[in-house]
Amino acid sequence: MSDFTDLVARAVSPAMSREEREAVYQVVKQAMRRLQERENLAPDEPRALLQAHLVEETIRDVEALVTRYLARQTILEAERANAAANAAAAAEPLTPPRSDA
Asked: What DSSP element (H or E) covers 44?
């Protein structure tokens, strides 16, 4: 099943919107149903149900990977922004306090 997961993961990209990824998943589900029809598997047959379950599980796994990737990108962007702000603050010259005496 890991080959199938890799195939689905390659078909989607974190740059895609959720709707675009969902369209890919629908194509995967349709392909599975066509294969089941070709093998004369009834939709309620245990093998067909297992295949459908594995496809759903794969989609869930791929979505988790995409979510994890996007979260990591958000964290990296925040860390870069924080580092840039710290560098900018460190580069500012220190001005002594004014003495009105």
From this structure: none
